[in-house]
């Protein structure tokens, strides 16, 4: 059977052999009781990578995001958030259901936060207005863009928030992609935010988990909320062991992922019947729009699937492709060839 080329997300990776070996040999304990040494190692290692005092191992980026908002925002407060962000679009209304906060979404079209617009979004004190309690940033930015937010823009948001006594949280699910693409260490990217998270299941390639990081008081409160929503684990060091291997070994892989995304984007942009903006490929994510007359997006994706290529629909005529561990240059060239055959032969 030919290899299935799955480009829907970088979450589809399989654990490396080193990860599997680490799972098998991990030293574990009861994490709820604070007895799992491998979890402790992962949390300390991760906090160090982000330059924060402490870390918390949770099951997913969604859990990390939701816990962070529970800690940083009070019920009834307003949270300023990007309209294309994961936390706003793909977390099943968790902000309303779990934190009981109101959202104030606004556009971040090119991965840059408009500081004037954000300042306008911060509420003035008034008996009829909710208080602005939190600003949620995302880097890389945009579900289907993977755009790197400029460091000075992040620092500008943090300065604005401090001026208004508002917390800032960073959804850094793919922050190491931003680190690789920009050359700015992740610890510097999140230096001025109050708390941040990163996913272990995306570019890191681990089979489970995410890390939430902040100061000691924040993590103490976050651990309590984690337990409340069913995130208390027992011998979870098996999964923490795989994550440690990923953090040690997989970040250089992202450079290859980014290069493969650029190669793929360049090849697809030259295919008649397809539109790809190569200038928007900052990391390992690209999007394309089917423009061929008489070809719907779903018929295009169905035909791609028949040829062994999976892509994710993101609108009525556009799709997303994400490069990752397990997809090499030969694979992306094959994807481009198949795309050309479907659209033009």
Can you give a write-up of this model?
β5 (132-138), α7 (151-163) and β6 form a beta-alpha-beta unit. The chain has two domains: 17-249, 3-Layer(aba) Sandwich (Aspartate Aminotransferase, domain 2); 252-344, Aspartate Aminotransferase, domain 1 (Alpha-Beta Complex). The strands form three sheets. A seven-stranded mixed sheet has the order 2-8-7-6-5-3-4, sandwiched between helices. The protein has 14 helices and 13 strands. α1 packs antiparallel against α11 (237-249), α2 packs parallel to α11 (237-249) and α12 (253-269) runs parallel beside α14. Helix content is 42%, strand content 16%. By secondary structure, it is α/β, with parallel strands linked by helices. The two termini are 24 Å apart.
Write a concise keyword list for the protein shown above.
345 residues; Aspartate Aminotransferase, domain 2; Aspartate Aminotransferase, domain 1; four-stranded antiparallel sheet; globular
């Amino acid at each position: 059977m030919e290899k299935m080329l799955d480009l829907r997300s970088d979450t589809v990776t399989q654990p490396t052999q080193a990860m599997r070996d680490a799972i098998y040999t991990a030293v574990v304990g009861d994490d709820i009781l604070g007895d799992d040494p491998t979890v402790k190692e992962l949390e300390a290692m991760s906090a160090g990578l982000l330059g924060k005092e402490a870390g918390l191992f949770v099951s997913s980026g969604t859990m990390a995001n939701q816990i962070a908002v529970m800690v940083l925002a009070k019920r009834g407060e307003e949270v300023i958030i990007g309209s294309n962000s994961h936390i706003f679009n793909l977390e099943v209304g968790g902000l309303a259901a779990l934190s009981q906060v109101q959202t104030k979404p606004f556009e971040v079209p090119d991965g840059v936060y408009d500081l004037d617009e954000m300042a306008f979004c911060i509420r003035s004190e008034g008996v009829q207005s909710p208080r602005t309690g939190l600003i949620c940033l995302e880097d890389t930015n945009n579900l289907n863009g993977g755009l790197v937010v400029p460091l000075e823009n992040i620092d500008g948001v943090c300065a604005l928030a401090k001026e208004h006594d508002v917390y800032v949280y960073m959804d850094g699910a793919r922050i190491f992609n931003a680190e690789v693409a920009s050359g700015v260490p992740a610890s510097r990217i999140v230096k001025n935010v109050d708390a941040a998270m990163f996913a272990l299941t995306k570019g890191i390639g681990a089979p489970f988990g995410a890390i939430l990081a902040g100061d000691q008081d924040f993590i103490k409160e976050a651990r309590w909320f984690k337990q409340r929503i069913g995130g208390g684990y027992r011998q979870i060091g098996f999964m923490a062991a795989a994550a440690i291997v990923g953090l040690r070994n997989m970040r250089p892989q992202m450079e290859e992922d980014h290069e493969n995304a650029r190669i793929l984007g360049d090849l697809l942009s030259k295919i008649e019947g397809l539109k790809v903006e190569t200038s928007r490929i900052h990391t390992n994510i690209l999007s394309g729009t089917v423009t061929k007359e008489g070809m719907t997006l779903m018929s295009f994706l169905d035909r791609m699937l028949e040829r062994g290529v999976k892509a994710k629909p993101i609108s009525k005529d556009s799709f997303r492709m994400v490069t990752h561990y397990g997809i090499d240059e030969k694979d992306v060239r094959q994807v481009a060839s198949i795309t050309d055959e479907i659209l033009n032969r």
